[in-house]
Write a structure and sequence with these properties.
mainly alpha; Arc Repressor Mutant, subunit A; 0% strand; 5 helices
């Protein structure tokens, strides 16, 4: 899976409560290691804002939105 496809799949999970592949996406997120799992889970499964996630994880919202989200999305795309 490429990065753009991973982004579309994650966005669909966040925006579409009737997404039929949601369970598979959640399982894939849960298979990732820390902190990638938490970044993606909070953002796409729990639909939290970057500010809420930053308060929980102790990183700045900008750091999470930029670097951490790119790394987590890449890890998601590369996982099986």
């Amino acid at each position: 899976m490429d990065i753009d496809e991973a982004k579309r799949e994650l966005a669909k999970l966040r925006n579409d409560t009737e997404f039929s592949g949601a369970a598979a996406v959640r399982r894939k997120i849960e298979s990732l290691g820390w902190p990638h799992r938490e970044v993606l889970f909070y953002r796409y499964v729990r639909a939290m804002t970057w500010k809420q996630i930053s308060d929980l994880m102790g990183y700045s919202a900008d750091h999470l939105r930029g670097y951490m989200n790119r790394r987590a999305t890449k890890a998601y795309a590369e996982s099986d």
